[in-house]
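Quick one:
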Amino acid sequence: MKIKRINIRNLILLSAFAAAFSVVGCLAAYTDRTKIDALPADISGEELTSAMASSIDSAAEDVIASNEALSTETVQVTSEDASATLERTVFTVTEYEAPVTMYTSDTVNVRSGAGTDYDKLGKLRWGSQTQVTGETDNGWYEVLFGDSTAFIIGDYMVSELPGTPLVFVGDSRTVQMEKAVGSTDSAFIAKIGEGYSWFKNTALSEIPSYAGTGTSMIINFGVNDLANAGKYISLVNSNIDAWTEAGITVYYAAVTPVGSGTTVSNSQIESFNARLQAELDPRVQWIDGYTYLSQTGFSTADGLHYNNDTYRNLYSYYMSVISQA
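Output:
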């Protein structure tokens, strides 16, 4: 029975596909049809299979070579890139004979190595007591952290418990600011309805318990006794030497504006603020919260005390002034 040549070729192609069990072989055989068409019509089945296998092998080698070249180009990394990826701070540790107790002077990151390019393992808050086991040649401390050792940059470690970073001293407005912002890393020495006498007789003696090296102290008295401007000036100026020697940075926060319905006026507050700003020792830094709230606005229910959002905004303003000092 005579079978058309095109049918024979189709059968041979199918046989080649089944024998190769390879997608690459299939594609290679199919794309090499010109070679199949050039074979003589009377070629034997064995000769045609051999020729087909040779064509597949050749095409497959070309495809593999092409893929290898593409793969090499895709994953190629220059020596410069590899160096940048793998480079970490190199350091050596001098171990102590026994752990030494130290304290964190601020909230600080704990890392897996002595450099900011190492992973963060956690954080320690201000005043955290830490066991130090060694120090590095690039200014870091090796510390015990959990069940292993870690590293903290030396700028934030001190041998004695440091002063609270922020100490607020004041009246009811200071009390309410504490409620609005919380007291993390801060201390509040304040009492509702108080003024000069309480500052002198009570708060003054409590300050050393909280304030010390590195402390920023913000004083905010006056709204309850604006007539005592001279006494406030004298009290602060007479203590500035001791505070400065203790490492305390002193700020006096201006009495902030009032709304309607109060027994004091903003003109009285402005006079009080102007006198303090002019006569306080130059080492006392002024924070002009009065102008800040007058310009940005504030919300008060009783004319004297603010809502939480206003206190938080005022606190943020205080922090911006202190950070720029």
